[in-house]
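I am still getting used to backbone structure tokens and would like to learn alongside you. Would you supply a protein for us yourself, any chain you care to pick? Start from the sequence, derive the backbone structure tokens from it, and show both lines together. Go ahead whenever you are ready, and we will take it from there.
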Amino acid sequence: MGLETHIARRGSRYYFRIRVPDDLIGFFGRRELKRSLGTASQREARFRALQLRQIAYTGFRTLRKNPMLKPEQITRIARAFYERCLDFDDDVRAKSKSGHLAERLHDSLKRNRAEALSDFKTAIADGDYSAAQIYLDSAIAEEKLDIAKGSKDYDKLGQALMRALIDANERMQARDDGNFHDIPNDPLIRVGAMAHAGNVRAAAEKPQSGRNGLSSDSQKPASHLIERFLREKQGLEPKTKNDYVATLGLLDQFLKSKPVGGIDKNDIVAFKDMLLRLPRNYKVVFKTDNASLAIAQNEKAQRPTLSSDTINAKYMSNLRTFFDWAVDNNLAYDNPALKVSVKSGNKTRASDQRDPFSQSQLQTLFTSPLYMGCKSERSVTKPGQFLVADHRYWAP
């Protein structure tokens, strides 16, 4: 594959892109890797792309030779263990009310909770994962993982399960004091996790830390990055700045302040669909900043909604520009707003639309001296024998 295949240009900047081999898509979670080359020079872009291509090919070979556990696998297995621990605690607490033996077991666990926690923390600090050994080996078998004891991946998974065990016991300790919120403290368990109480749905999120190549600011919502974004967009008119602030503020409201690094195309498409139902000037008409409330009130009021031109030229255009900047600054992997727009049946702008000629107008036009014969090349409005054959014949 030629080097030019891996270079793309967006505006004045060059980007490196490479397709992920089919057998490694599951590891990377995407079909293509992209990265800014940080230059507007074609010559420099080719040099940097050559280096990145070599790094990518070397990385692909290394992964094939030494398969690694995917971060999302580790998170999922640890989360399942965390929930299983709390399920066990639920059972013990429920049964303690119905049987003397179960009550004694619950009391014993409660008395020894602090000591057990201390032992678990000491063990994980020493690299001892024996407390989670049974579940560790069981998970490796169930997932059909080719991981040898003592390998780096084995230790990674063991450590993750110990973290889950520690967090679950901290939640049990909180329950002993009457606090049943069951929200994990450990970010490995908390990120994208399903709360044990069942009131938060599980969500498959993109990796959340700076070690995956994204800046730590990728965890901030769009509205928290607007000042940084506008500082780089010098020379903008005040109205344009206000439009960016309004667009990103509305996106945050709709997505409930979802981190920029986790926003995907489905989010942007859903946002576009919401805009199609949003009443024009809703803040003034319905006296609310809440777009959802304005949409609900408009179901009865039936006020005009945003036009496709407004959505495309203002909101979608602003989002594409913002996420281009986010990609360039390692705040997002790709631009989720690309190719998202309202597809209008009539693509002609209203200002460009014209009424068709009538039959009589066409007859008048094509029986004029320009077509039937004029006096001379310069006198095309007077009848004569001269026939015009230049551009005026085709575009009168």
Summary: The chain is about 50% helix and 5% strand.
